[in-house]
Amino acid sequence: MKTLYLFLTLFIAINCFSQTDRKFSTFLSFQVNKTLNDRTITNNTAGFGFGLQTHMNTKTRIKPALEINADLFGGTKELYLTADDKPIDAKSGVIGIYAGPVFQLTESMFLSATIGTSIFNSKSYFGVRPSIILYPSKRKKWIAKVSYTDIFQRDHISNESFGYLSFALALKLF
After folding, report:
1. What is the pLDDT of residues 80-123, one digit of tens each?
2. pTM
3. Distance in angstroms (rounded) separating the CA atoms of residues 115 and 65
């Protein structure tokens, strides 16, 4: 009888102290950017930034995700003027908040299709940010991510989008 009680106690203790899967995974990223299209492309040729990406761990292949990024862009920062002598502002800092689904293709490869807003020059603009995400190691502590951000800056100056390619490496926080 003592053996049965000991066995049941150990069995209950093992179940009580086993780890459960986390509901969310959060990554801190460092990224480099290359501007592909902009109305003042020489002003914003390249940049770097930091970001946080959180996705919900679900049992399905589709997971909701949230991304927050802050990017700095550098370039010549020349003064561009419209036909009526109004200045066209360069972009030095861009903050992006994007949300959407992440599709799990394989155990270590994901596709993301997020939409949201980017804020620069004290204005917010609608944008889309498709991404390819890879886990380079089996432990899934790091991710490599390639994204294209297309920001629709439709205003009185032009209807040209601001688009840049990003390559990011991210460390899993929790």
Report:
1. 887 788 887 778 899 999 999 999 999 899 999 999 999 998 89
2. 0.82
3. 10
Domain extent, residue 117, equals 25-172
Domain-embedded: residue 56: yes
Sign of CA dihedral 19, 20, 21, 24: negative
CA distances from 74 to 33, 34, 68, 82, 111 (A): 10, 10, 20, 21, 29
What tokens were used for 89? 């502002």
Burial class (CB in 10 A: 0-12, 13-18, 19+), 150: middle
Tell me: the pLDDT tens digits for 4-57?
656 556 566 555 555 556 788 999 999 999 999 988 888 888 999 999 999 998
